């Protein structure tokens, strides 16, 4: 978990922007990026909206394309306002925000770490939909203030409707929607348990997914409207998004609930130390005698500099092991592949995420070799086996 930062010093994104994105700039130190996919989708939507404008105002000719594209840009800016509301509220509470990534069908604000209280969770989550509803309201009143028959009226009306849909939809009580995080905050407040809030909100997302999938049938049964193929495709896409997102949050909640119980000290394998020229067969024999599950390669000064890969050992036939040295099946220890014996769940997860490897050297508080932590053992502990 990343630490909370001062509101004036938001977290800076590490490394280059994600592939397939443009960097638009920064706001309060937060990097703004946009997916390359925005442009073709924007052109497609602008083309469709231009047809509507052309039917109602044929006299404007090719300018309908410019008007339609301007509407698409305005809608994108309204999505940016939605995401900025989340980001600025997070900064208000001292929570680091590294990036806002824009796209038509999925926009996200990368907020680092968990909110510390239910109120912070509620405020950061609810402010985005509220911002969309405010933009929609302003667009509605703007439409009323202009000539009811003009292109500007149509564009403002469509902007009002689209932001109303975005705001209301995001308030639905299920993860990964904003309303799901609002629900989590409410459950967290009344139960005093954030984990319970996440479980409830994740199941809320699954229920929302089922309702969305059933919506085309409900249109026919309740309102007597014959659903179209487009209705079914949209319901399938949105329902799949909600179900997969809520399921991911459910798995993540269960994982984080288990993290505090995981300790390097209890998961690390006992290790023996051998020199680089030691035959692999002899190293395996010594490990068996010592009931050790790992082999550390040391240099002439007795300092560890490599780990013998378990997979590499398995790949060497037994009749070849007397003629193979441990240096031939070892991996040099990088700085990020050393972990402390007292590290626990969150620290373990951070190391795995930032420095992926199959084995890690475990050192005790004095800097001496304690053992080796294998990624396979961590995965088994996560699965409860």
Annotate the secondary structure layout.
Layout: E1 21-27, E2 30-35, H1 38-56, H2 63-92, E3 97-102, E4 108-111, H3 118-145, H4 151-170, H5 178-191, H6 194-223, H7 229-258, H8 264-267, E5 271-275, H9 280-289, E6 294-298, E7 304-308, H10 310-314, E8 330-332, E9 338-340, H11 345-354, E10 359-363, E11 369-374, H12 375-382
Parallel strand pairs: 2-3, 5-6, 9-10
Antiparallel strand pairs: 1-2, 3-4, 6-7, 7-8, 10-11
Helix pairs in contact: 1-2, 2-3, 2-4, 3-4, 3-5, 5-6, 6-7
What's the β-strand tally?
Answer: 11
Largest sheet: 4 strands, mixed
Shape: elongated
Order of helices and strands: EEHHEEHHHHHHEHEEHEEHEEH
- Calculate the mean pLDDT score and round it: 86
- The radius of gyration computed from the alpha-carbon positions, rounded to a whole number of angstroms, is 28 Å
In whole angstroms, how far apart are the ends? 25 Å
Percent in strands: 5-15%
Q: Give the fraction of residues assigned to helices.
A: 40-55%
Main sheet strand line-up: 1-2-3-4
Low-confidence stretches: 1-14
If helices are DSSP runs of H or I spanning 4 or more residues, what is the number of helices? 12
Q: SS-based structural class?
A: alpha/beta
């Amino acid at each position: 978990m990343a630490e909370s930062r001062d509101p004036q010093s938001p977290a800076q994104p590490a490394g280059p922007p994600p592939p397939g994105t443009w960097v638009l700039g920064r706001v309060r130190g937060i990097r703004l990026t946009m997916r390359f996919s925005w442009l073709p989708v924007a052109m497609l939507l602008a083309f469709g909206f231009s047809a509507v404008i052309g039917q109602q105002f044929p006299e404007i000719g090719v300018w309908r394309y410019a008007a339609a594209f301007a509407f698409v840009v305005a809608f994108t800016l309204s999505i940016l306002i939605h995401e900025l509301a989340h980001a600025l509220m997070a900064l208000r509470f001292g929570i680091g925000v590294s990036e806002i990534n824009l796209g038509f069908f999925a926009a996200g604000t990368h907020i680092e770490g968990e909110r510390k209280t239910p109120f912070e969770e509620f405020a950061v989550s609810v402010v985005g939909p509220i911002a969309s509803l405010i933009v929609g309201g302003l667009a509605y009143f703007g439409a009323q203030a202009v000539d009811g028959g003009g292109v500007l009226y149509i564009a403002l009306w469509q902007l009002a409707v689209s932001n109303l849909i975005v705001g209301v939809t995001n308030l639905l009580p299920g993860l990964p929607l904003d309303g799901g995080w609002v629900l989590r905050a409410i459950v967290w407040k009344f139960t005093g348990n954030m984990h319970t809030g996440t479980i409830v909100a994740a199941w809320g997302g699954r229920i929302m997914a089922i309702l969305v999938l059933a919506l085309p049938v409900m249109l026919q049964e309740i309102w007597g409207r014959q659903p179209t193929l487009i209705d079914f495709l949209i319901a399938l896409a949105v329902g799949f998004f909600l179900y997969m997102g809520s399921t991911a949050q459910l798995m993540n909640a269960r994982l984080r609930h288990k993290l505090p119980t995981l300790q390097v000290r209890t998961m690390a394998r006992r290790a023996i130390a051998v020199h680089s020229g030691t035959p692999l067969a002899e190293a395996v024999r010594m490990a068996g005698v010592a009931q050790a599950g790992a082999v550390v390669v040391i240099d002439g000064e007795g300092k560890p500099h490599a780990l013998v890969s378990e997979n590499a050992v398995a790949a060497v036939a037994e009749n070849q092991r007397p003629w193979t040295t441990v240096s031939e099946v070892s991996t040099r220890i990088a700085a990020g592949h050393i972990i402390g014996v007292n590290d626990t769940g969150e620290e373990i997860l951070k190391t795995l995420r930032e420095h992926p490897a199959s084995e890690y050297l475990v050192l005790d508080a004095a800097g001496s070799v304690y053992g080796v932590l294998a990624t396979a053992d961590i995965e088994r502990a996560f699965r409860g086996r």
